[in-house]
Amino acid sequence: MTQSAPLLLAADYRKFMRQKRRLLDAATRQHCASLASRFLPKLFSVLPNNANIAFYLDSFGEMPTEPLAKFCQRYGHQGFLPITRHGEPLRFAPIYQPLAKTPLRRHHLGMAEPTTHKIDARRMHAIICPAVAIDKTGLRLGMGGGYYDRTFAHAPNCLKIAWCYDFQLVDSLPRQAWDKSMDIIITERRFIRIN
């Protein structure tokens, strides 16, 4: 299922996987996202109609998220993007369709985030997040800021979905007390239901 690797420190995984992501050209990234989008209809069984679905805008070599915006538009779900505040859970702002109509600003961490009104994470039915690495138990390693772990602690009932490349799946990751596991992993090769 996953690539075999010795158990590394979180910093080692971050360095290795971020380098590997950066080696992907734009065409490969888009192709992977297109392949992964084939699995999105599997979410019908776990999402209500007109669901609030949060996702991110890819900025650091992550798998592109444009298919997520198109999925929301096609099936009547409302898409949301995260807004960060240091040390706090993420809040979310609705996107406009097409996505290019959503007013954005560049955050000091480098990603684009919306400038519209903010909504509490507990109003999300699903939060689709990036991963630097993820293991077979759904344990996700992020960029290290703790934003998603704080958010999932604040909104424990939302569906937690990792959207990542298949090579980011590893056998095991080091666990911290605050880590929250994903419910679903979607890659270009598979759809994995953890819980």
Automatic annotation (TrEMBL):
Superkingdom in the source lineage: Bacteria
The protein's required cofactors: Mg(2+)
Gene3D superfamilies recorded: NagB/RpiA/CoA transferase-like
EC number: 6.3.3.2
Binding site for substrate: L57, E62
GO process annotations (BP): folic acid-containing compound biosynthetic process; tetrahydrofolate interconversion
Catalytic activity: (6S)-5-formyl-5,6,7,8-tetrahydrofolate + ATP = (6R)-5,10-methenyltetrahydrofolate + ADP + phosphate
Binding annotation for ATP: R140, L141, G142, M143, G144, G145, G146, Y147, Y148
Protein biosynthesis in keyword set: no
Pfam family name, one: 5-FTHF_cyc-lig
Entry keywords, A to Z: ATP-binding, Ligase, Magnesium, Metal-binding, Nucleotide-binding
GO molecular function: 5-formyltetrahydrofolate cyclo-ligase activity; ATP binding; metal ion binding
Protein family membership: Belongs to the 5-formyltetrahydrofolate cyclo-ligase family.
Annotated protein name in UniProt: 5-formyltetrahydrofolate cyclo-ligase
